[in-house]
């Protein structure tokens, strides 16, 4: 049994453990404004608003892709669909602006666009959003009728309209939402069962460890931005699903002055401000990792544990000498990120263990760090090649180098020969040009639908040179 707030009222549901939010809305609630377009979180036609509280009790309004979000991940949270924005004859400010600016074209994508902008509106507390905020909010929404200009006009003027009615479902949610109230009891370890499937929603790591002791091969569901596709496109299901979103300790960021520790459930959006302060080159590529809807769900720990060779964060963590902490009922152990990836989509996680946290050393005054991602589209696209480079610098020399790539092998890997070629060299463009010649010794990439092996080798070498141009300021 799960409990969540939908459009103004608390609901209790016993649902199929593999049911997505979108399928629930359209088949159980007959709320059909959200559409299935791509079934992969790319187009935004399915966008809805998830509402949660942070540890200080402040409400957070997040646009998410309902097509790949597990219904169980709403347990203890709120959900607002487009149908819950207006009340009687009073439209929500976003809806009114869309109408007045003639921003609705055929209507297929409009509900998702309205949901994204409504999440922005409430995050800004009804104040004006700048163009960067607007473009970020809409980065995961397609308009198949190419009506972008009036949509942007609506986004720029939505704050000028009267606030939502107090009796509107989204206002009722704001007034009544309290997931830790006695009216919403804590989730027990009794599973939601559907024939051969079992769903568990632990609230503590102790409960999680006990579950993994009993079900060591259970599917751990974090943000689901990749696992969701196994349901919507591969039509696969797991016998045991453990949904992690209720475990607060996994969603914390800790800064001890020398390192930053990211709990496995920290989302990309949650990590933004910390990354901007400590690792600005990392923060710079966040807009290149999916859309805002994806970054609101996707987690750092999930991206690492998934062990995709084209995952965006593993090469970055490799270059930064990060460590992962693994936990189980038998205790914890810490291993270097270098030792974590053991093969194609394989890791050092043992049965019964889970990735608890990622610890990243802060950059020193003599270290320089950069990240570059190459993909077919600027936004919301998978990496063809991603390079992360960290240098330790002397007065005019490169003391040592850490260079890591994604998309070049079966696992994220260091470019060992390239690192050796940079170490001890003068800080000049020529040093980077010579080091780039070592890339074919480091990697033997494959041809696939995203790029040929030859293209990947050329791009990987050029990124080394680009880093040289960046740090030396030399002219190309």
Automatic annotation (TrEMBL):
Pfam families: CO_deh_flav_C, FAD_binding_5, Fer2, Fer2_2. InterPro entries: 2Fe-2S-bd, 2Fe-2S-bd_dom_sf, 2Fe-2S_ferredoxin-like_sf, 2Fe-2S_ferredoxin-type, 2Fe2S_fd_BS, Ald_Oxase/xanthine_DH-like, Beta-grasp_dom_sf, CO_DH_flav_C. It comes from the Bacteria. The keyword ATP-binding does not apply. Residues 1-85 form the 2Fe-2S ferredoxin-type domain. Coiled coil: none annotated. Keywords: FAD, Flavoprotein, Iron, Metal-binding, Oxidoreductase. The keyword Flavoprotein applies. PROSITE patterns: 2FE2S_FER_1, 2FE2S_FER_2, FAD_PCMH. Residues 192-365 form the FAD-binding PCMH-type domain. NCBIfam families: xanthine_xdhA. This is Xanthine dehydrogenase small subunit.
